[in-house]
Specification:
A hairpin with a 6-residue loop joins strand 13 and strand 14. The chain has about 325 residues and is α/β, with parallel strands linked by helices. It has an eight-stranded parallel beta barrel, surrounded by eight helices. The protein has a single domain, classed as TIM Barrel (Alpha-Beta Barrel), CATH 3.20.20. The chain has twelve helices and 16 strands. The radius of gyration is 19 Å and the shape is globular.
């Protein structure tokens, strides 16, 4: 696939900063981070989770050696290291764990203190709150929780990133997005990351993971709610194969085996039959949206899933 036609247009434009997530369950994620760390501002590896009782702890199954390597690579390259905290467990993002962890002022205080304790002990620069799939009725408690976390992290001189589901109006049209009050979360947090991907998802019909118009609408709303200097736009560098339902999630290692790719005109994504993948053309278009809205940067889900040539587009590293 050739993206030269749009690359030329972007050479003289400012480069949005690059952040993104790493996953411990795919070895290529750490490899990609190591290879590209000099291009990255913030990395957010899986680090922290909520157990079934809603208590904060280090995520099991992640080795001390993995954590050590993340610290060493980040320090060597001047990358801010934020431990990703999530309520993922038992195969999905669990709203019950979240409800337990923030149902009272005391629970929120203990949650905030436990996160800060791990951040200090593990030499993290901050935390990324990837708390998803909550109930609409959790909206107030979640805002209070993030405010409590932000207060505690200011005390220990660490930063807070909050990651939210995409929407283009308040309060939103389904539980998980309603639970995220963008103005309050954006005011409390130091950084605000929007998951502008999965417009079509594993159990939906095939379609763009992130069409240009959809991302544009979400970003327009985001900067109306949160200062642009705090906003980071999510970029999908993975794909789905909808040949069967639910769709299979793909990295480029998987997708490279497919043939007869075309470019979707609505998203720039690579398409082969019922397979869609967020490649360089799609990343270029999202970069243009980020530049237009003068936001802080882009957030890649996830390092290690991408087609290698996507890096030149993300960073404006043109020959």
């Amino acid at each position: 696939m050739v993206v030269a036609a749009v690359l030329v247009l972007a050479i003289s434009k400012p480069n949005p900063a690059i952040s993104g997530w790493t996953v411990a369950w795919n070895p290529t994620s750490l490899e990609s981070y190591r290879a590209n760390a000099s291009r990255i501002s913030v990395v957010m590896p899986e680090w922290i989770f909520l157990n079934r009782q809603g208590k904060v702890d280090r995520r099991p199954g992640i080795s001390d050696d993995y954590r050590r390597q993340m610290r060493e690579i980040s320090k060597k390259n001047g990358v801010k290291l934020y431990g990703m905290a999530s309520n993922y467990g038992d195969g999905d993002f669990d709203p019950v764990r979240m409800a337990l962890s923030m149902k009272t002022e005391d629970a929120r205080r203990r949650h905030a203190q436990a996160l800060a304790k791990i951040a200090v002990e593990d030499q993290l620069d901050g935390v990324d709150l990837d708390y998803e799939n909550m109930k609409a009725g959790d909206r107030e408690n979640y805002s209070l929780l993030v405010e409590a976390i932000a207060k505690e992290f200011r005390r220990v001189k660490k930063r807070v990133s909050v990651t939210v589901h995409a929407k283009n109006s308040e309060p939103g049209n389904w539980d998980a997005v309603i639970a995220h009050d963008w103005k309050r979360l954006g005011k409390a947090a130091d950084e605000f990351r929007v998951m502008t991907y999965d417009q079509h998802w594993a159990t939906s019909e095939p379609g763009p993971i992130a069409s240009d118009d959809w991302v544009e609408n979400v970003m327009t709303f985001a900067v109306s709610q949160v200062p642009a200097k705090k906003v980071w736009m999510g970029v999908a560098t993975y794909g789905y194969d909808w040949s069967k339902s639910p769709a299979t999630s793909l990295t480029w290692t998987d997708a490279a085996k497919y043939k007869d790719w075309n470019i979707d005109p609505k998203s720039g994504e690579m398409v082969s039959g019922k397979t869609w993948f967020g490649g360089p053309e799609s990343a270029m278009r999202k970069r243009e949206i980020a530049i237009k809205h003068k936001i802080a940067g882009m957030a890649v889900w996830y390092f290690g899933s991408e087609k290698p040539s996507t890096w030149r587009v993300l960073t404006g590293d043109f020959e």
